[in-house]
Amino acid sequence: MPKNTLKPNRSNFIFQRNVAIIGIVLFLAKLLAWKLTNSDAVFSDAMESIVNIIAAFLGLYALHLANKPKDEDHPYGHGKVEFITSGTEGALIIFAGVMIIVQAVDSIWNGNLLKELDDGIYIVAATAIINYVLGWISYKKGIQENSLVLQSSGKHLQTDTFTTIGVVVSLIIVHFTKINWLDSAIAMVFGVYIMFVGYKIIRKALSGIMDEADPEIIGKLAKFLNENRREAWVDLHNVRIQKHGSKLHLDGHLTLPYYFQLKIAHAEMEEMILSIVKNTDRNIEFNIHLDDCKPFCCEICIMKNCPARSQDFVRKIDWNAESITQPDKHRIN
After folding, report:
1. Which stretches in the chain have pLDDT values below 70?
2. Which end of the chain is more exposed for a tag (fewer CB within 10 A), N or C?
3. Which part of the chain is the Cation efflux protein transmembrane domain (predicted)?
C-alpha cells in the first residue's frame, strides 16, 4: 500500500546526544553544589540529574532503533521501542523520587548540618536556566518530529527545572531563616512531585504499547475525510490506528459501489490515501480493505446518479471518531 515516505530525521539522534552530554555536565555541577551545601534539596536535584543522564542515553538507543528500516523480524518497524524507553524513563524518575524521600526522612530523623548555601544557590540557579532552555527546545522538536522520546526528554528537563527553582527558593529560605529542617521537608515535596511525573510518563508509554485508541488522532482523521468525502466513498468503517513511535499504521474498510472495475476501485482508494498523506506530516503506512456495497447501503449512499440504486436515499452518515471505528458497515436499521 502507498505510504508517506518521510525519511528518518537523524537530527533527532544528534540532538539527543547533545542532551546527554549537557546532562552529564549539569549533574557534575549539582554534585558540586551538594558537596558544598550538604543540602537534601540539592541532593534531590542531583538525583534527578542522574535520571536525566540515563534517560538521555536510553533515548539515544531508542532513536537509533526507531530509525532502522523494517526487516523480516520487525515487519512494522522498530518504532515501538520509543514507548519502552519512555516507560523506563518514567520508572527511573519514580525511583529517584523514592531515593529523595528516603534521604530527606533520614536527615529529619538524624539532623543535617547545612553550609555555604550562597555558593550552592548560584550553581543550582545556573543549571535551572540551562535545563529549561534545553527542555523547551527538546519538547518543541519532539512535537515537530512526532518523537515521543524527545517529548518525554523535554518534559523531564522542564520538570527538572521547576524542581531546581524550588531548590533555589528553599536554599534562600533556609539561608535567611536558619530553619534547617525546612530543607528536608521541601526535598520530600519534590520527591512526591517527581514520582507523579514519572507515573504520567509510564501511563503514556503503556498506552502506546497497548495500542490504546487515540480519540484526538481518529477525530482529526474523521473530520478531514468527512469534509473531503467523494461521492463514490459509500462508507468507511473499522478504522484502527497503531502508533509505532513517530510513525502510524492505519487499517480501515472502504465501501465502494459493487459494480466498480478493479482499476477504478483502486484509484478511489489511492485518492483517499494520497489526500491523507498530503495533509499530514506523520509517516503513515496504510492497509485499506475494499468492500462492495450492499442493497442496504443505498439508504446512506450520497451518489446522485447511481445506476444500480435499489433503495431510496434516507440520510447521510457523518464520519466522526465514533462512526468510522464501528466494526461493521453502517446502515439505517
Report:
1. 1-10, 52, 59, 62-83, 111-113, 146, 148-149, 207-213, 244-246
2. C
3. 21-210
What 3 state SS string does 91-103 have?
HHHHHHHHHHHHH
Superfamily of domain 10-209: Cation efflux protein transmembrane domain (1.20.1510.10)
Q: The pTM is what?
A: 0.55
Nearest to residue 64, comparing CAs of 8, 7, 20, 6?
Answer: 8
d(CA 122, CA 209): 42
Q: Is 7 exposed, middle or buried (0-12, 13-18, 19+ CB in 10 A)?
A: exposed
CA distance 43 to 99: 10
Q: Which residue has the cell 499530514?
A: 280
CATH number of 215-299: 3.30.70.1350
- What pLDDT digit, counting tens, does each position of 229-274 carry? 999 999 999 998 877 656 788 889 999 999 999 999 999 999 999 9
At 82-124, the pLDDT tens digits run 667 777 777 877 887 887 788 778 777 776 667 778 888 889 8
CA distance 149 to 297: 44
Q: Is 268 helix (H, G, I), strand (E, B) or coil?
A: helix
